[in-house]
Amino acid sequence: MNPLTPYKEATDVILEAGGEPLKLCYQCGLCTGTCPWNLVRNFLVRRIMHEAQLGATDFGSEDVWTCVTCRACVQRCPRGVEIIDVMRAIRRAVASLGIGIVPDALRISAKNIAGVGNPLGEAPEKRNDWAKDLGVKNFVSGTEILYFPCCVPSYDPDVKIVARSTATILNKLGIDYGLIGTGARCCGEAIRKAGYEETFQSLAQNNIALFAGGDVKTVVVSSPHCYHTFKNEYPELGGRFEVIHITQYLASLIEEGKLKLSRQVGTKKRVIYSDPCYLGRHNNVYDEPRKVLQSVPGLELMEFPDSREDGLCCGGGGGRIWMETPKGERFSDIRVEQAARKGADIIAVACPYCFLNYRDSVLSMGKADTMQVKDITEVIAEAIE
Fold first, then answer.
1. Which has the closest alpha carbon to 153: 162, 144, 143, 145?
2. CA gap 39, 68 in Å, rounded
3. 87 and 63 in contact (C-beta within 8 Å)?
4. Which residues, 6+ apart, have CB-to-CB distance to 199 below 8 Å?
5. Ranges for all domains in the chain classified under CATH 1.10.1060.10
6. Per-residue pLDDT at 351 exceeds 50
7. pLDDT of residue 259
8. How many CB atoms lie within 10 A of CB 126?
9. Pairing state of beta strands 177-178 and 145-148?
10. CATH node for 118-252
């Protein structure tokens, strides 16, 4: 079967989900010039868009799975074309119709998410094991805040520190919060961007019903991906609750005088903050994480050369966190080199995907002796009295 054949079913899927963006695109090429992939390899976004317009998408190309949904192209597009929606539609055609090949690692993660509700394939009843010795209560009706840490901090042994640091801070401040039962599932944001729409719908409906049954009013999250989908996508499906990223919540506590940071974090530390795409470009949250870090005694906050709206993606969005990226094409390697040139001691992150990618780059590049990767909550947990 020739993958360039314009399959009617696949074309219909693309037009249904990306029809309007396709009509708006007039092939100026700014998307290709903006895309971070072109720092390390060729990735012609304009060509992908044009092929989709013509109904001649190459479903067998690896480019189908390359986009990290960082939104840099959308931000620069003069006509506001939602290019991510088109990429998601193309992937949906492959995933739902079996046209083309889904990368093995993504296929396994998608199977795990659909089967047991998390990409790591861990048992659902272990979701809250990270909190067993921290005295965190179960969420019940009337509890002020539901803390939802994301699958990665819930299950990954190295990233559990993110959830544990958050719980430590909330415990010390006497915040009324709890964890939802083990019926919770992955938020579904990344698997939706990878084209698995039916899986997303199932995950979202499960979580919405679970939250509604528990009378959840406010959710604090560690992951910008959870933040984005809970805030912007769940309401369309009936999920209506306040969503706050942990950096926003900590910033508000500092502003209200409820969180006081008086303990210096070691000797004077030079910290560089990396903006997560789904907190920054997707949701315009830039100031709060910086305000939190600036409140830590003895900490010097530095900026990457391309920060805030121009921040470079870590490479984990759009399902790429579950796929292999060859050495020499990893955005996180570029970031670690930039941080080293700036003389940073710590790369501060506010996203579990950033945590995973930067940690791997620091280790693979042999910089673990001179540089650490820390979630902002880790830094605050060390600085709080």
1. 162
2. 14
3. no
4. 110, 113, 114, 188, 191, 192
5. 8-97
6. yes
7. 93
8. 14
9. parallel
10. 3.40.50
260, amino acid identity: K
The encoded tokens of residue 200 equal 């997303």
Rg of the chain over CA atoms, in angstroms? 21
Yes or no: say if 124 and 115 are a contact pair by the CB < 8 Å rule: no
Class for domain 8-97, per CATH?
Answer: mainly alpha
Q: Tokens 């009706």 — which residue? A: 141
The answer, yes or no, to whether residue 276 has pLDDT greater than 80, is yes
For the question of whether the overall pTM of this predicted structure is more than 0.85, the answer is yes
What's the topology of domain 261-383? Rossmann fold (3.40.50)
CATH 3.40.50 location in the chain: 118-252, 261-383
Q: pLDDT by residue (tens digit) across 23-69?
A: 788 899 999 999 999 999 999 999 999 988 888 888 889 999 999 99
pLDDT tens track for 148-173: 999 999 999 999 999 999 999 999 99
Q: Inform me whether the pLDDT recorded for 8 exceeds 70.
A: no
Tokens found for residue 8: 């009617």
